[in-house]
Amino acid sequence: MHPATQLISEKQAFMALTENDVNRIARLSRLELDPAEQAQALTDLNSILGLIEKLQAVDTQGVEPLAHPLSAIQDIALRLREDAVTEIPSETTRSRLMANAPAQEEGLFLVPKVIE
Amino acid sequence: MTDISSFSLSGLRQALDGKQVSAVELAEAALNRAGQHASLNAFLHIDPELTLTQARAADERIARGDVHALTGIPIAHKDVFVTRQWRTTAGSLMLKDYVSPFDATVVTHLANAGAVNIGKLNCDEFAMGSGNENSAFGVCRNPWDPQAVPGGSSGGSAVAVAAGIVPISTGTDTGGSVRQPAALCGVSGIKPTYGTVSRFGMVAFGSSLDQAGPLARHAKDLVTVLDTISGFDPMDSTSLQDCLGTPNVAGRVQQAFDKASAGYREGGVRPLQGLRIGVPREYFGAGLNSEVAAAVEAALVELEKLGAVRVAISLPNTELAIPAYYVIAPAEASSNLSRYDGVRYGHRATAYRNIDEMISRSRAEGFGAEVQRRILIGSYVLSQGYYDAYYLQAQRIRRLIVDDFHQALSTQCDIIVGPVTPDVAKNIGDNNEDPTADWLADIYTLGVSLAGLPAMSVPCGFGRNGTRPVGLHIIGNYFDEGRLLAVADCFQQHTDWHTRTPDIQS
Amino acid sequence: MKWEIVIGLETHTQLSTQSKIFSGSSTAFGAAPNTQANCVDLALPGSLPVMNRGAVDRAIRFGLAVGGTVSPRSIFARKNYFYPDLPKNYQITQFEIPVVVGGKIRFFVGDEEKTVNLTRAHLEEDAGKSLHDTFKGPQGEPATGIDLNRTGTPLLEIVTEPEMRSAAEAVEYAKTLHGLVVWLGICDGNMQEGSFRCDANVSVRPVGQKEFGTRTEIKNVNSFRFLERAILFEARRQIDVLEDGGTIIQETRLYDDVKDETRSMRTKEDAHDYRYFPDPDLPPLIISNEWIEQVRADMPELPVLRRERYETELGLPAYDAAQLTVTRGVSDFFEATMTRLPAEQAKLASNWIMGELAASLNREEREIADSPVTPEDLARLVQRVADGTLSNKAGREVFSAMWAGEHDRDVDAIIEARGLKQVSDAGAIGTLIDEVLAAHPAIVEEYRAGKQKAFNSLVGQVMKAGKGKVNPAQVNQMLKEKLG
């Protein structure tokens, strides 16, 4: 029910980004930009788009996307591991794994309160 | 004090096994040289006690005869390989105090062989960049000319070898980040076939592109290191179990190299007899600096003298590699870097009103400008409405590029040769307003990364009056690392570019 | 204006593997926080996912059980969004090409049989948990605690077409699906522990309209009762909004079981741009025909096959057969009972299981596995009813006594002790009938005059006179004979 792709018209592809676009992408990426940074990002991103726009002109009719490079020459299949527990739960291991945590309490990572 | 800067691995091995020098002495010499050349800023974290502990253990192994080719040999790791005993920053403020609870597989392989780690090497932040100017911990300087960039993103890895601090180092190559700094610093470096070296423990940038690769003075030494770090790893689902029929295990690269070299030795004065070298016309167009072109041409002539034959080929989609790569790599990176949110590790902002602000500020403070740019463009090309036109289109072009190489390497030539970069190293700070200006210089290396092919760089000359090295790009077919290295080794037996060392100014 | 409710359900079932879908951490419930989260689960730099074969086995099993197609090649994708209990800030799931496509679930709503088509079922990883207790952050601000033990637990997300038209239907579907996944051994079905969670997509439209209305999603309802209430509330809410001239906003809502209402979750404006793309860390999942056949061979007998067997071999009506095969426990109980009964008594056994037994279990909130009345006990009870020793009413009394453990649940001992034996002796019944006919000449007259009700009245009188212990079938037969 959610289409994976949407066709966009050729015309739309060549439209430059707007401030709204930058705001949206920055929000999606969780990067807080101040107004100067937003303006710079707008310029930079439009510049980058100018470069990658070249892709649009290429006729790739009938060409399958290549996600895993080696699949072009040999069968690449997902390797499966046997269902087995390989880590013994322990508080010692937990301390080691949580040693870089900015805030923790009673074995939990702490973050500013999340409101659902 | 032993000067290791001109030693090859075999020389060092002999010295160690013959008790002329100890691992501790080699390590101390390396640490001293690192200190001497601190102004190059190649290292981000050095801890002499950790190093000497490893060196002492290596000496014990040597004493009881339990020796691997790399036991006691000083090395250094690019700071994107996680290590339990040194910090791992990936060149970023985001991870400036991060200590990993586990080691990268590459690190484990080398530690198990008894190599002695001198420290973690400077790099462009999250491996994004080609001049090591994007490191949060200062630029890294080219030992040939401290005003010049060393290349990137594995700048520190190339500098440490070029400056004679360590004989070998590890780097990572996503779009050229081993080959390009190797070229700009006058050392040898190789990016193996995608999937032959484990990515477990490598801070991820572009998952379908990233591969670890060693740097060294001598191509022959790359064989040993590559062979040691290669092999199937069950912790990495993209790690290959077999290479078109041959198991992906330690020994594969060494054996292939030995076989090819033996063949070349039999060739006498024309060792490379029968070797067809594809020379793509797209690699020699406008935009290629004349000094670089000249050095590459001279190398080709040398290879012809050695018996190889030039074949003119075409890789028509060469230029498209740039936009394709700069869609795919940032897209993957934008997702790979989402985990850096200040929740479980890494930098956390101190001023925020709620969790969204905490995360957005932590990331804005922790990531540098280039990383932020790539995250933004990466999110954009994956976003609703643009996925097909950008991301999928880039992946289709990726297939076209693979087809180009396949056409050449299966029917016309055995290897492909060209320049690594269009120009020699630029000056530090010589930056363009346009963020894409540097990207155009990746034109020769990107296609190989998109295709997952093995490729290497070996020194083949200089520009700017002998101050800025030039690298020769040698590209092979899938799993053909052994032959590539044998050709490079043969070239190095008949030339001496790789033995030149810089006169390092402080 | 007449409204139609349109419902689709997405159910997240935690698969019963030992280890997580992409790491070797344990999936056991109830461990101390973050003791079952390794470097992959914590998304530490450099960590990578490695797929668990057991999760795929269970997905294949499900696909075969519902008659869906198991995809020979399916792809894992990244669903990108930021949430503190999602360590990578993307979820590994399946998007364009899931592991199972299609399939059907059949069930009864009342006495009407329904079939709901499944769109798909796909594998994905679960997220962690947020605890909103009284924690304080580094600057004294209120904080949430994050426990990542659950992160990476394998989920099979089962999605229906929007074909359900009532809350009751949705609940019956959910119960049937629940019974199935437990039956197959792929999920423990423990709703309190979050093993089985339903999201309901609800919309309304005027009857006769072809287009669907705007839908809302009610997330994470973890009991059948709340599912029904939530859907009913939401449908009502939407109808009220539309009848007042408003519009429905497409959004996610939570059900508050205390207030019995749904409320909007904090709106996440870009929550819908998940930027799906195939996960470059995971090559395509290839499932061979050999593997599928192996799973098929190892499968328990499917509920749908048992149901058919009950219908064809035991002559049970479709409704009964369906009810008996919702859960394996009930079906096994039925079959154990039937090993001690002739096929003709299947319907009777079914009635007792779906009637008295089910009611007693529900009343005490017991599972059938904990029933004090065993299949052997029930079989003997059914025999005594079938052979006329017990009337239905007396049978219920015996059942209660067995349930309470009287006389070690020995049916005959109970009948004896309580004097419940039904009178079936022709002579004794004949005497009773004669007495009743003599005592109620007026009713006899009415009967002869053609009033059928009079007959029933006479039967009633005989039953009363016999204190409910007379075999009603025999009374009917003999009364007819005597009246001529």
What is the tally of beta strands of chain C?
18
The span between the termini of chain C is: 58 Å
Order of helices and strands of chain A: HHHEHEE
How far apart, in Å, are the first and last alpha carbons of chain A? 26 Å
Architecture per CATH nomenclature, i.e. the level-2 architecture of the domain at 10-58 in chain A:
Orthogonal Bundle
How does the helix and strand content of chain C classify structurally? alpha+beta
What is the CATH H-level superfamily of the domain at 10-58 in chain A?
Answer: Glu-tRNAGln amidotransferase C subunit, N-terminal domain
Classify the beta-strand content of chain C into a percent band.
15-25%
Number of domains of chain C: 3
Question: Mean pLDDT across all residues of chain C, rounded?
Answer: 93
DSSP strand content of chain A = 5-15%
Approximate helicity band of chain A: 25-40%
Largest sheet of chain C: 10 strands, mixed
Helix content of chain C: 25-40%
Which descriptors apply to this entry?
heterotrimer, B: 506 residues, alpha/beta, Amidase signature (AS) enzymes, eleven-stranded mixed sheet, 38% helix, globular, C: 484 residues, alpha+beta, ten-stranded mixed sheet, three-stranded antiparallel sheet, 20% strand, elongated
Explain the overall architecture.
- The complex is a heterotrimer of chains A (116), B (506) and C (484).
- Chain A has helices spanning 10-13, 19-28, 35-52, 91-97, and strands spanning 80-81, 104-105, 108-112.
- In chain A, strand 2 and strand 3 (108-112) form a beta hairpin.
- Chain A has a two-stranded antiparallel ribbon with strand order 2-3.
- Chain A has a domain at 10-58: Histone, subunit A (Orthogonal Bundle).
- Chain A is mainly α and 116 residues long.
- The longest helix of chain A is centred in the middle third of the chain and has 18 residues, at 35-52.
- Chain A contains 4 helices and 3 strands, in the order αααβαββ.
- Mean pLDDT of chain A is 85; it is low at 1-14.
- Chain B is an alpha/beta fold.
- Chain B has a single domain, classed as Amidase signature (AS) domain (Amidase signature (AS) enzymes).
- Chain B has helices at 9-17, 23-36, 48-63, 105-112, 155-162, 179-185, 219-229, 252-266, 290-305, 321-336, 355-366, 369-382, 387-411, 443-451, 481-494, and strands spanning 43-45, 74-78, 116-121, 168-173, 188-191, 211-216, 242-243, 246-247, 276-280, 309-313, 415-419, 455-463, 468-475.
- In chain B, helix 5 (155-162) runs parallel beside helix 6 and helix 7 (219-229) runs antiparallel to helix 8.
- With 484 residues, chain C is α+β, with helices and mostly antiparallel strands.
- Chain C has 3 domains: 3-292, no CATH class; 301-418, no CATH class; 426-483, Arc Repressor Mutant, subunit A (Orthogonal Bundle).
- Chain C contains 15 helices and 18 strands.
- In chain C, strands 1, 3, 7, 8, 9, 12, 13, 14, 15 and 16 form a 10-stranded mixed sheet that branches. In chain C, strands 6-5-17 form a 3-stranded antiparallel sheet, with no helix packed on it.
- Chain C is elongated and about 95 Å long.
- The termini of chain C are far apart.
- The mean pLDDT of chain C is 93.
- Chains in contact: A-B, A-C, B-C.
- At the A-C interface, helix 2, strand 1, helix 4 and strand 3 of A face strand 2, helix 1, strand 10, strand 11 and strand 18 of C.
